Amino acid sequence: MKIAAISDIHGNLGALDAVLADIARRGVDLVVNLGDIVSGALQPCETAERLMALALPTIRGNHERQVLEDDSSHMGASDRLAYSTLRPEQKQWLASLPASLRLAGDVLLVHGTPDSDITYFLETVTQSGCRRAGKRQVTALAGDTDAALILCGHTHVPRTMQLDDGRLIVNPGSVGLQAYADTRPFAHRIETGSPHARYAIVERGRSGWSAELIAVAYDWHAAAAMARRHGRPDWVQPLLKGVVATAANLDESSSSAGAAQDRGG
After folding, report:
1. Domain range spanning residue 54?
2. Are 93 and 48 in contact (CB under 8 A)?
3. What is the pLDDT of residues 82-98, one digit of tens each?
4. Peptide linkage before 185 cis (omega within 30 of 0)
C-alpha cells in the first residue's frame, strides 16, 4: 500500500494544487490529510472547496478546533480570516472531521500526538529553542498506540523516527507554511529554510513501512503577494524563504501597518 500524507495546508491553495499534481504522478493508493487546513493569510474558502470535493480521509487540527469555537474575539489573524470567510457548509465539514483516524488496520492519523492536537511529537521545546525530540520522549508520547505507522503534523517539520519496537512515526511537513514563531511553552521558531511545499509518501513493503519526504516547487511569489494584499506581511518571509519574519523584513514587506504574526502551527 502506498499513501501520500499531506498536512498543515493553512489555506495555501497554490501549494496544495502543486502537491496534488505531484502526487497524481506517483501512483499512490490513497491521499490523507492531517489537519490545519484553512487558517492562514491566503484562501481558506477556496482550499476548503477543493478538499471537500476530493473527500480525502481527513482529520482536524488545532486550528480547525479554534475556528469552530465560534468566538473570533480571541482568535489570531489566520483563524479570524477563516472564521469570517468560510461558508456554513464548509464550517459544517470542518466540524464533522475526527480528531484522529485509524486506517488499514495499522495506520493512525493524528495532528499532534495520539492524545493532543497541540503537543509536538518529534520535536521538543526548551528555553534554548526547538530541537529534535529523543527516542525515549517520542516513545512515551506514542504510548500504547498499537499502530505500526503513525502519521502526524502540527510542527511543519518534515521528519521521521522509527521506534525500537518498530513503529514508524512520520511528519510530512507543511504544504502551505514553512516557518512560524510561537511563545509556548517557551519562545521558539520553526523554520525549514526553504519555500517548497512539503508532503510524504509512505509505503508498506515486505519489511514494513518506509517513508519518503518530498519537497515541491510552486509559485510562492504569488502566494507572498497575496499575503501582502491581505495585510499579512508576517507571512511573506515564511512563504518566500521558509524563515520567520523579523522586524526588518516586516518593514520591507508590509503593505499595511500593524499586522500581527500568528502563534503556533
Report:
1. 2-253
2. yes
3. 999 999 999 999 999 99
4. yes
